[in-house]
């Protein structure tokens, strides 16, 4: 039975799993769980992931959620995956696990609420929240500074000094890509000071093309809708048309 | 060269690593990094962990931080560790990784700020923050409900249906033990509805004695100080004596 991925391209960890499978030639069936239609909250999806979050996978009789656990599992379960994605070497693997854990309470804790409170909220019928966005931006900027000064230290182009990408590069870069939904000026202000981060995003993109661009295309579509909504002033939109324009949870 | 653990018993992930090493007969040198003296923020400790957080380890020339990554590493690096702590089986390991990832953005995201804003703040010279505490309690209670209904599902006494504890049991139970710092009534109100969680805490404690109680003794000492501070009204205390009574970051 083919591996099933329950995903939505607007979800950054979904994209990381999708790109990983594509790059590594893992055959899968994509099951779209449309966040904008709140399908992730349905009783059907709760059978797959009781936490009602994306992504989730079903591999035969085995169900799994949490994107990092999924990436670790796939890297080990499919023998064709090159070692650099999640090295068998105990020390290299431990460093990658360390980045992945760090990500949860740092980069993600900054980026996700910034995008929500600084860009997406109006599309969900909620006001922008500049205070929450400013707090998130502080966490995000501190996290980007740590990536720049510590995680990208050394001669390698990728995290923890590697010369080839790992599942941690994919996870963190997909998170940062979500900033594409912000106003360009804000995004440039935040990312601009971190030259190594910008180069690393580009290196990760180049190492995973054409899948990287294909999986991220959705962001530019959503942004276009956000800008249109903004220029329309939103006054002539019904609550329902607003909600359908954008995901309710990213 | 002996494994070095950089820890403070008041830090819940430090306790998880300490108990793990003790239970598994891993020989180590304990290096106390006193959070109440802000030693985790010192330039010396930044050489060990540039993120300035506890715990961290040094094993020979290898440095590592993030408690989950440390537990995963130790379970694999020391051949005497029983398999149930972090199973070699791909599926069992994946489920444990999934709980560990989930923990970051659920249980910990509720428990840690609740203890800070609901109990510890005055000892740090900051006011209690009932609004932040109430928000954290909602996240914590939802997380405990998920542990009760999902992670402790099945016949096993431990997480993901296991009959013996894993590193995930240790990590999550040590987090919940931090609630001992709360007012007894508040703690009972929060934990009371979750009978399986209460039994599981007890099972994890029993499976890791006498080390569990030894490593948690600090919490009861800190609580006594908190209560004394409360009954004294804090008015006759200097800022400096307040700060030294309690950890600045847990």
UniProtKB/TrEMBL annotation, chains A, B:
Catalytic activity reported: RX + glutathione = an S-substituted glutathione + a halide anion + H(+)
UniProt cross-references to Gene3D superfamilies, sorted A to Z: 1.20.1050.10, Glutaredoxin
Record GO terms (molecular function): glutathione transferase activity
Keywords recorded for this protein, A-Z: Detoxification, Transferase
GO aspect biological process, one term: toxin catabolic process
The EC number(s) this enzyme carries: 2.5.1.18
Source organism, top-level taxon: Eukaryota
Domain named GST C-terminal: residues: 89-227
SUPFAM superfamilies: GST C-terminal domain-like, Thioredoxin-like
GST N-terminal domain segment(s): 1-82
PANTHER family: GLUTATHIONE S-TRANSFERASE T1-LIKE ISOFORM X1 (PTHR44750:SF7), GLUTATHIONE S-TRANSFERASE T1-RELATED (PTHR44750)
Family as reported in the entry's similarity comment: Belongs to the GST superfamily. Theta family.
Protein name: glutathione transferase
Lineage, uppermost ranks: Eukaryota, Viridiplantae, Streptophyta, Embryophyta, Tracheophyta
